[in-house]
Backbone:
């Protein structure tokens, strides 16, 4: 719950920055829409307080889908709902559970957005982060260190989006002019991961 509240506050604080990024290559609503969605999540948290982790994540996803316009609501909403389905009935998460939740969330984004890594989308932060997290666990690192590596990989992923052509969404209409701009969805994905790392 604390993680979700911290995420909502961070997205609200970064709303203008995310919108500015989206103004450059999208339709200029990523920050505004996402902040509205997480405000709806914050309102819903009290009724999720006594639920298991799977149900909480599902509730977050449903709040995002029902309150956010544009692409980010369905994408993030599906990510949280798929993670919730993977964590059904759990009251605490092991490091491996977190890896499975990441994978489920990414699968939801890929399914909904029909996108792959390297297309200048949120996946360019999420997929490297998930891989770095699993690699760190496999190397015997604890969850905090593994999340640190996930955040670092996501940060590099955001930087990488500046160098590539957008082939999905509104940004794809810009063609070559999309190069040089970082992807707003990859940026918000990094912020959500940073809040998760801070909370643990």
Residues:
């Amino acid at each position: 719950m604390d993680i979700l509240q911290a995420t909502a506050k961070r997205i609200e604080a970064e709303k203008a920055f995310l919108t500015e990024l989206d103004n450059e290559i999208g339709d200029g609503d990523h920050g505004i829409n996402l902040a509205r969605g997480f405000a709806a999540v914050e309102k819903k948290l009290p009724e999720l307080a006594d639920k298991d982790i799977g149900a909480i994540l599902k509730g977050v996803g449903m709040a995002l889908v029902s309150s956010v316009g544009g692409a980010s609501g369905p994408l993030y909403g599906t990510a949280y709902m798929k993670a919730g389905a993977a964590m059904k009935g759990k009251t605490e998460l092991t490091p491996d559970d977190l890896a499975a939740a990441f994978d489920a969330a990414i699968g939801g984004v890929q399914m909904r957005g029909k996108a792959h890594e390297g297309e200048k989308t949120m996946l360019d932060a999420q997929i490297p982060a998930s891989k770095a997290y699993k690699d760190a666990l496999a190397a015997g690192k604890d969850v905090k260190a593994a999340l640190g590596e996930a955040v670092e990989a996501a940060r590099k992923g955001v930087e990488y989006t500046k160098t590539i052509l957008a082939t999905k969404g509104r940004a794809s209409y810009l063609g070559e002019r999309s190069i040089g701009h970082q992807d707003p969805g990859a940026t918000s994905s990094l912020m959500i991961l940073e809040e998760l790392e801070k909370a643990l």
Remarks:
- The chain has a mean pLDDT of 96.
- The chain is about 70% helix and 0% strand.
- The CA atoms of residues 2 and 199 lie 8 Å apart.
